[in-house]
Specification:
Chain lengths: 104, 184
């Protein structure tokens, strides 16, 4: 009984009617489009995305490459005298020299 | 020999549209207007509003052909159904839903009009009950039954998981079965 009701409901749902579109709808759309200019400017983000698609690389490769580029940028932007250990070295050389002077 | 326009598939046409080819656009519009109109009509229950939505959707595609990204969308129709659905939702948000008239005309070019009154009453009752369903249930039902999309495709159009789509359809059918008891 329930199966019959299901079947009938399915049949009714598949045979629903609707008010058809105007015969000239297609032509109206085409004519309106002819009067509109196309916007072909590509945003920076979509350009980058397109570039990534061109390479056909998996996502981890992009993460790795981004981390590498970021590391290089940070590395190069850091001033030389700020690099860790540079100050320590100069202090230890001075200590060494002053120790030699003390012996003399 | 070059392929005739109607023989070109959607993806070929879209690539040409992205190069500004009007003939490709016309072919795509002629091929798909009816099906997208039908979906919009089912949702909005208004011929004028459905035509406007379909027109807006196609003109958006023409103006911004880069919206179609073949690498992100497997099928044009699935993507464009989503565009149409979103436009319908926007329109519904802006305008309050209209209750269906008891005497709403049910016009169809597909079949002759010599039907029994019972069948017409049945149809009217069904349309009324479908219109009373929650928005997402109605959309799921329309996509699966009217458009003949697979559950997977309908889920992609609505942006939900397959299980959620199945649940929406199931709930809609259960409600309809209950409310249409007299006709089943």
């Amino acid at each position: 009984m329930s199966d019959n009701r299901d079947e009938k409901l399915d049949r009714m749902l598949r045979s629903r009617r609707y008010e058809g579109a105007s015969a000239d709808l297609t032509q109206r759309i085409i004519l309106k489009a002819q009067a509109l200019p196309q916007n072909n400017t590509v945003s920076l983000w979509s350009w980058i995305r397109q570039l990534c698609v061109e390479f056909h690389l998996p996502k981890p490769a992009y993460v790795l490459a981004s981390a590498l580029v970021l590391g290089m940028v940070i590395g190069f932007s850091m001033p030389l005298d700020m690099s860790p250990g540079a100050e320590d070295n100069s202090v230890s050389v001075q200590n060494f020299l002053s120790a030699d002077e003390a012996l003399l | 020999m070059a392929t005739a326009w109607p023989e070109k598939d959607d993806h070929e046409l879209l690539a040409l549209i992205q190069d500004g080819n009007g003939q490709a656009f016309a072919t795509l519009v002629e091929r798909h207007t009816e099906r997208f109109y039908r979906l919009a009509y089912r949702y909005l229950q208004s011929k004028a509003a459905a035509e406007d939505v379909v027109q807006d959707a196609f003109l958006k595609l023409w103006e911004n052909p880069a919206l179609w990204q073949p690498e992100r969308n497997s099928k044009f129709t699935t993507w464009f159904y989503r565009v149409v659905v979103n436009l319908c939702l926007d329109l519904r948000k802006r305008k309050a839903p209209v209750a269906l008239d008891e005497d709403m005309p049910l016009i169809d070019d597909r079949e002759p009009v010599d039907e029994t009154m019972v069948k017409i009453q049945e149809q009217k009752a069904l349309e009324r009950e479908i219109a009373a369903l929650p928005e997402r249930q109605r959309m799921a039902l329309n996509l699966c039954f009217d458009e003949g999309l697979s559950n997977q495709e309908a889920a992609a159009v609505m942006g939900v998981k397959l299980k959620a789509l199945q649940s929406l359809v199931m709930r809609a059918k259960t409600t309809l079965k209950e409310r249409m008891k007299a006709y089943l």
